[in-house]
Amino acid sequence: MSKLLASAQNAVDLALKAGADDAWVNVSRERSVSFSYRDGNMEKVEESTSRGLSLRVYVDGRYSAHGTTDLRPDHLGAFIREAVSLTRALQPDPHRLITDPALFADRASIDLQLLDPTVAELSRDRREVWCAEMDAQAHRDERVISAESSVFSGHSEGVSASSNGFLGSSAGGYIGYSTQVTVREDGDKRPEGMDYAVGRFLDVLPAPTEIATGALSKALSRIGSVKAPTQRTTMVVDPQAAVSLLARTMGPASAAAIQQKRSFWAGQKGQQLLGTRLTVVDNPLIPRGLASRLYDGEGISAKPRPIIENGVVRNFYVDTYYGRKAGLSPTTGSPSNRIVRCGDKSREQLISDVGAGIYVTSWLGGNSDPTTGDFSLGLRGHLIENGAIAAPVGEMNVTGNLRQLWERLEVLGNDPYPYSSLRVPTLVFGDMQFSGC
Amino acid sequence: MQSTTPHPTSGLSIDDALSWFEVERQQLARVLSELSARGADAADVYFQHSRDNSITLEDGIISRATTSVDMGAGLRCVVGDQTGYAFTEDLSTPAMLAAASTAATIAQGSAATAPVGFHRGPNLPDRYPLARRWSEVSVTEKIPLLNRTAELTRALDPAIIKVTVSWADSDELVAIADLSGRIHIDRRPMSRLWVMVTARKGEQIQSNSANIAARRGIDWFSEERLQQLAKDAVAKTMILFEAARPPAGEMPVVLAAGASGILLHEAIGHGMEADFNRKGTSIYADMIGKQVAPEFVTIVDNGTQDHERGALNLDDEGTPCERTVLVDRGIMASYLHDNISAKHYGVQSTGSGRRESFRHTPMPRMRSTYMENGPHTREEIIASVDRGIVAESFTNGVVQIGAGDFTFYIKNGWLIEGGKITAPIKDINIIGNGPETLRNVTMVADDCKLDSGGWTCGKDGQSVPVSQGMPTTLVSRLTVGGENV
Questions:
Q1: Cross-chain CB nearest to A435 (options B66, B82, B480)
Q2: Residue ranges of the alpha helices (H) in B239-338?
Q3: How many domains does chain A have?
Q4: What pLDDT, on the 0 to 100 scale, is given for residue B3?
Q5: Is residue A231 over pLDDT 80?
């Protein structure tokens, strides 16, 4: 770590020497290992160590940002000199200033527990055995055509230093498994199922074979998928699919989007924007959280903040630059762990209560307009009939507007998705527009 | 001053290329020997140096720029269908030997024959020669283009409240050394210009964007081209104020000439990538030689079109690029192969082995995918539809390889009623099934064009630039996201 720190400080010095008024440097190093096994054999082994340096320079009221992996000393020196000279060619921007040191204050001094020492000690043999076990488990059905299972892990360390006194260092790791299974069905269709788990610590993950079991059962559950009729009905969204639905909704909640007038969140602080049932807190200080941090990319000390409370907007994601442009106080420019307030019913209870509708297990493509909130998404899932999960459906779309979507949120489950920094449970929306046959 | 950009390329020799990476022939021989020390059917070292520049104009000023330099080597050892891979940004001998021995662990036999000498791979025509490399063009020459584009855009409509113009250019040097001692060299330029527009009418705000991209130099960005880009961006934005969602459900979809090639990319292109087929996971795995579409349908994936975003002189395994016919007059003709799948099927690679960077293993990928002209006309096609839509501009698409379901998202389009275009539509997803959709192509016009926008294809976490194109085409039935039922 001290070596990284020295190279970060050296780069700050080089930038100042080249004529920068201020400079901010991040240096990072990362190691990753991935084993993939397919149909009884190791398919791919990847193992690498990576490094990089990024630099933000402020020169005569002008700004630019740079990154390089070519750290040969003479090349790095030239790179930084070029960066500073390029900046002089730009136009001055009065809103672009290095982060105010007041925002560095009050950095939490807790141990976020982001690095599991047992992961680095996992032997190659252990990983290969897991892969083989997952592979065997994923093939436990004669309809399986092919299955691929992976065990992947990595850890990184990073250091940041600035010309106005910021110093920070962080280290973190992850480990995960995934399995993808393809099965045969009558005709040409080959339905696939995928499952994965990822976490900071090995001891919170399920056994690798459970992931393989999950992927196999997901693939088998797709056999005989049909297109349901075009209709308006209740939509139940699985937690894993709910992650991207909420991420899509919150994407334009940034000062950058708001100041650029490309956000349906603009002017909505304190307003009832997303129905009355959704509450989301951004909490960067959760031990072992996948997006936990003590400071953000601009050095702003991390703090938990409500974003949405019972549908009312409490905070935007405000970085220093767009904050200054839009007249908003900086919070942080990027999300950390986003925690949704859960309900108290299980998915089974919710589906039973719904009676009839469509249960979405994953999205297939689609998009939304951040300015208007209009969305249209492809989906796959199951019919809900008589309060239970019934036939698989696919080749359908659901279409609407994100604001109206959350107004139609009727109830949330008690099952937040554990393998994402966005922890959201099963969601039930009333009266959604589906297109099918 | 030491420059951080590679030397000019004209007649770039292998020593020029290696010296840029500060790698000696002898050192490379040692690394390849280590990489094949436990045996290898194939092994290669992929050296890459890229320099990317971007500039943004926002709120009337050129307020930021970025540069990024990426350099490293990816080392690969292949045994049958198995791959060992490691990369390093540190090109010193110890770092490269360590990466080589890591990648070599996939093999468990005795050493393969490593090269002792090196020679340049076959001399190939350069499909993207530039009068001046991007490394020779200074930021001060690019800035006026951004200012001019913003000015042209703002002048087009008083309702415009925000204009953002973004620029990106890139210059990349690739050198691939393989076990036979060949070193393949390519120099790959790329450039792209985007315009994002936001406009307000009363309480309503709408935004949209347009972009152009190609393996071109600065001379390509003519006044006329900037005008066209500004016009497209503004037209695509202003029409949104009048646009509505079409009805939901199944209906005929007319794919407008150009960017609609996204349908081919998703509905068939990915499914024809041979890695999915050798694993048996593609819906097209058993369809070679079979009739999959009417006889007037020919679908091509082509890496040889001059200056196209998807063009390549050679792929990322050193194989010369070619024009590959995927569907020949309705008959499924060929998959897209990299070296591993070509060996598996006992055919030649189609020059489709691509990778995002030295950090990634190559796999079969598309380059520029399009349908050739058919016997109908656009007018005939529109007139034949009683109630349906025209799909005109798109944001993204995706496919499930095995089930064959694919989608693409329409940003702008038109409603057809009684054989006539009647009203603008917006923001709907289209979903269909690949083989079914090919069977349902009922008319193809004679107006094929490649889209000039910059498309990027994602697969297994790797992004590569691609092109796509289409003549006006009628698909008799697709499921259209919509409202008002």
A1: B480
A2: 262-264, 274-278
A3: 2
A4: 42
A5: yes
ipTM of the assembly?
0.93
CA gap A160, A7 in Å, rounded:
10
Last residue of a domain, one of B222, B240, B258: B240
Q: Which residues of A58-89 are buried (b: 16+ CB within 10 A; e: fewer)?
A: bbeebbbbbbbbbbbeebbbbbbbbbbebbeb
Closest residue on chain A to B244 (Cα): A374
Do A205 and A285 fall into the same domain? no
Gap between the Cα atoms of B41 and A205, Å rounded: 37
- Which residue in this structure is represented by tokens 């940004």? B89
Query: What mean pLDDT, rounded, does chain B reach?
Result: 95
- Domain boundary, last residue among A196, A221, A246: A221
CB–CB of A399 and B406 under 8 A?
no
d(CA B172, CA B50): 4
Contact A22, A163 (CB under 8 A): yes
Does A17 reach chain B within 8 Å, measured CB to CB?
no
- CB-neighbour burial class of residue B479 (10 A; exposed 0-12, middle 13-18, buried 19+): buried
% of chain A exceeding 70 in pLDDT: 100
Reported pTM: 0.95
According to the model, what pLDDT value does residue A188 have?
87
CA nearest A51 in B: which residue?
B89
Percentage of chain A lying above the pLDDT 90 cut: 97
**Both structure tokens of A227:** 């297109």
Q: Hey, are the CB atoms on B69 and A81 less than 8 Å from each other?
A: no
- Kindly report the CATH number assigned to the domain that includes residue A24: 3.30.2290.10
Asked whether B336 and B364 are in contact (CB, 8 A), the reply is yes
Q: If residue B51 lies in a helix (H) or strand (E), which one and from where to where? A: strand B42-58
Inside any domain, residue B72: yes
Chain B residues with beta carbon closer than 8 angstroms to that of A188 = 283-284, 286-287, 404, 435
The domain tally of chain B equals: 2
Boundaries of domain holding B421: 249-480
Average pLDDT over every residue of A272-290: 98
- Encoding tokens for residue B362? 């190559």
